[in-house]
Amino acid sequence: MTKSQKPKAISYKLTIGWLYPDLMSTYGDRGNIIVLQKRAEWRGIKVKVKPIGIETSPYSLVVSDLLFMGGAQDTQQEIVNRDLQDMKGKVLIEQIEKGIPGLYICGAYQFLGKYYRTADKKKLPGLGVFPLSTENPGEKYPRLIGNIVIEPKIEGLTQPLVGFENHGGRTYLDYKNQRLGDVKKGFGNNGKDESEGIVYKNSFGTYLHGPILPKNPQLADLLLTLALEKKYGEKIRLEPLDNSIEKKARETVMKKLI
Amino acid sequence: MNSILILLGKTILFLSRTFNLGSGSTWPGHVAMETNPKFVRQVIKKNPNLKVVLVAGTNGKTTTSLMLQEILQEGGLKVFRNEAGANLLNGIASSIIANINLTGRLNFDVAIFEVDERNVELALKEIHPNVILFLNIFRDQLDRYGEVNQVLKDWGNALSMVKNSTLLTNGDDPALAHLAKKSGLKTFLFGIDDKFMIKNMTGHDVDFIYCPNCQTKLDYKKNSFSHMGDFTCPKCKFKRENIEQIKLTRYPLFGIYNIYNTNAAALIANKIFDVSAEKINRALKTFKPAFGRQEEINYKGRKILMLLSKNPAGFNQSISTLSDFIHPRGENVPTPRGCNILLILNDRIPDGRDVSWIWDLDFENLPKDSKIFISGDRAHDMALRIKYSQLSDVSGQLFEDLREAIENAVSETKPNETLFILPTYSAMLESRKILTGRSIL
């Protein structure tokens, strides 16, 4: 295993802003942070992980080079929604529009859309950054649960992404060509149109838990690359790492689905 | 009608035991409940002198039920309980069939029924227990149980259906303490002594660290594990109440979570069934754990300790139990050494098909220089988790075949050392079968 490799001549630094670690982290989402941090450090990049919670000022969003927000349960999501009503929400929108890279999972993904219609037809407004909306068809319809494989539709990702999805809401993109990938096995955004996730500027929204990054190191490296390129304004090529365990773990999931 | 079902059930039990058919534990109950869905309700009603204790919680149901049974028996009471894992209504019905006589009488003083956390509502519709014990509540197998908030909500609804039950619950858990307050039931709160708590802000396996009353983040003066501790809401002043404790001379099992389980069992025995502290301590002295729960197995001259580890809170408790084992509290161990640990991660239905929870585990707290072996259906996921915790190079220690993993781990364990196995539920049953040569369920 590659524990550390020689740092480059210029030493890069990254600040990862982790939104609501104690509220939006239901499905082992912290794994995504661990993976981003280690994969950067193994390449000699200095990383600071900045937890951004209810009591944190919006300024911490401005100094973050890469953003992450995980999934949550309803009660926790309500607390977060309230917190993002004011300045912090506005700053988050600005950062996303400016092209600050980020990864937003499940509840966070839904919340960045225009609205979420609950099972009892209540319309909860979202931040409205991502051109999408989500409907919960009600308790008569099953949650979409299970292992999932998608084929990504973006440059830099050549391998299928695997994960585990577990969501009641069905998400519909305004423009299907903004999807992160095509569903090969599983449900994806809504279980109907074979799309999964969204790519908006440098932000990625998806239903994939697992967590997503450990088994999909290409996506982790893409996020790191985008963050460094944005920050330093130059083309970045990350040194390759040994991904053999990742590959086997991914194959286990794919074998289950074939 | 029920007497026919009892006779039929007993026959099935007899046959499955005689011919070792396995899975016999829920079969008779299944047949009875399919034929007469009111079977459990009617039989319990016909035995008004039988006191029923219902035990629910994410972790520790089996250990606590077994402990309570042994304490009550020490107190001279006749007790039966449903088999571990058979904790749906079918399992309860089966335990009734096994213990009832053909005239429909249960010659027992107490029945202890552990129920699956999703089935509390269903169980309380059928049975109005004398005592309800809610041990704890943590996130667990989200694909099966759903979100933990929903489980809590269901428990609240379930409590509104019973009026005469006494509730025993965990006073160190803000969500459960709040639930008890709202229920209006006669309540006893168990917990643990502050001296077992530490000043350490909660980890990543917490579920309820915001005030259940006003949703403000709670302050913790001290903390035991997960979201349990000495909490206060800075805004609405909702806080941990005084807990009740029976004076115990020793705890029979490792780990803080077992201090909770033991305190809960002791409090019920004393407050509800009048068993003296002296008798409780006597029963605990000879207590042997339930299968897979800190169970000690000898295999090829090596000592193996099986620590069932099936969700973040439970697994993190197993990890800290290992440290306790290596460095017993108060003892000065000159040269700390690592453990031999076999991690087995399966993703079958009883384990939960989603393995993302392993990323909430604090492997960084494993004793240094531990030797780690990995197996299970999702061994590579576990290896990946270990890789990112940067504990050790694990590539040479992964065995897809479980038997091979066990043999290798055992042969690398010295005669004076212990091999710790941390398995998920189905992995525990499977490895136990390899180690003891027979299956239990």
Structural commentary:
The complex is a heterodimer of chains A (258) and B (441). Chain A is built from eight helices and 14 strands. By secondary structure, chain A is of the alpha/beta class. Chain A has one domain (13-257): Rossmann fold, CATH 3.40.50. In chain A, the strands form three sheets. Chain A has a six-stranded mixed beta sheet with strand order 2-1-3-4-14-13. In chain A, strands 6-5-7-10 form a four-stranded mixed beta sheet, with no helix packed on it. In chain A, a hairpin with an 8-residue loop joins strand 8 and strand 9 (161-167). In chain A, helix 1 (30-41) packs across helix 7. The radius of gyration of chain A is 18 Å and the shape is globular. Chain B is 37% helix and 16% strand. Chain B is an alpha/beta fold. In chain B, the strands form three sheets. Chain B has a six-stranded parallel beta sheet, with helices on both faces. In chain B, strands 9-10-13-11-12 form a five-stranded mixed beta sheet, with helices on both faces. Chain B has helices at 2-18, 27-35, 39-45, 61-74, 89-99, 120-126, 142-145, 148-159, 174-183, 256-271, 277-285, 312-326, 379-389, 402-411, 425-436, and strands at 51-56, 79-81, 110-114, 131-134, 166-170, 186-190, 219-225, 228-232, 293-299, 302-307, 340-344, 371-375, 418-423. The A-B interface holds A 1, 3, 21-23, 25-31, 34-35, 38, 54-55, 73-76, 78-79, 143, 145-147, 164, 166, 209-211, 214-215, 244-246, 248-249, 251-252 and B 139, 142-143, 146-150, 202, 204, 206, 209-210, 215, 217, 312, 353-360, 377-378, 380-381, 383-385, 387-388, 390, 393-395.
